[in-house]
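RECORD TYPE: inverse folding
INPUT: structure tokens
STRUCTURE:
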């Protein structure tokens, strides 16, 4: 009988995809700019990414900009050390270290670390709208996707953006990747009609439009929410069973989820006793 050899790398990727899919139905925790707050790590640093992976979170979000010399780098704000990233060369930016001594990471370095010993955590890539032009933003998106594919990380990476055109640009070159819109000005049905995978809105938009929660679920649109740091808001989101919850407080959110599970178990036990 012939035997089929399955590569370990393939098994690892398959396991990750299954775990990510499972997390998507259980209020999966996404660390906002990595898991940085509790240990006072720099946001968007390699260290904060590694901590999110070590916590086995469902996802870790990060932000991408393109420098004047076309380097793709990880930083949240348009400026780094008072330098406008899009108008500054990378060699000038890395003269200034992060607070933990790291240099400003490139996308290549960040994704390479994100692949290492990672069986659980989706890399959630936010592509920042260009402050120079719409076209520059779309080009940055294409270069970002190209880099991630070269690193063979496309199956563990999803994309988010406030720029709808950036997401549509990515969809043209990748029909399968996960895309989530951030702005909060479109209904789940509208997003689905443009082949965008999900909505990832500030929780206040869902409080104003609770019907969007049901609409997203009925249309099989990924339901994500940011940035949820308050315990009461966490409980409201958890109660509505979102796919993902983006937070600066992943440890606190994990506690709230455990509390919910415990309450459910206690309720089930009381019901059994009555029976």
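DESIGNED SEQUENCE:
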């Amino acid at each position: 009988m012939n035997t089929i050899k399955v590569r370990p790398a393939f098994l690892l990727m398959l396991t990750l995809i299954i775990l990510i899919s499972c997390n998507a139905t259980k209020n999966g925790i996404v660390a906002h700019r990595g898991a940085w707050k509790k240990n006072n790590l720099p946001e968007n640093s390699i260290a904060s990414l590694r901590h999110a992976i070590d916590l086995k979170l469902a996802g870790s979000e990060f932000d991408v900009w393109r420098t004047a010399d076309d380097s793709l780098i990880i930083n949240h704000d348009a400026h780094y050390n008072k330098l406008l990233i899009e108008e500054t060369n990378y060699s000038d930016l890395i003269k200034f270290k992060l607070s933990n001594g790291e240099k400003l990471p490139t996308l290549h370095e960040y994704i390479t670390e994100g692949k290492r010993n990672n069986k659980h955590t989706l890399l959630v890539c936010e592509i920042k709208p260009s402050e120079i032009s719409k076209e520059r933003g779309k080009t940055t998106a294409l270069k970002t996707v190209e880099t991630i594919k070269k690193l063979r990380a496309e199956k563990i990476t999803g994309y988010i953006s406030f720029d709808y055109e950036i997401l549509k640009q990515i969809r043209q070159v990748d029909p399968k990747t996960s895309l989530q819109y951030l702005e909060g000005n479109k209904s789940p049905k509208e997003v689905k009609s443009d082949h965008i995978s999900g909505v990832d809105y500030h929780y206040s938009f869902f409080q104003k439009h609770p019907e969007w929660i049901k609409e997203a679920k009925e249309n099989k649109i990924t339901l994500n929410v940011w940035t949820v740091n308050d315990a009461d808001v966490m409980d409201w989101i958890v109660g509505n069973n979102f796919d993902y919850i983006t937070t600066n407080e992943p440890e606190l959110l994990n506690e709230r989820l455990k509390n919910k599970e415990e309450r459910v178990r206690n309720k089930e036990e009381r019901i059994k006793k009555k029976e």
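NOTES: The longest helix spans residues 250-274.
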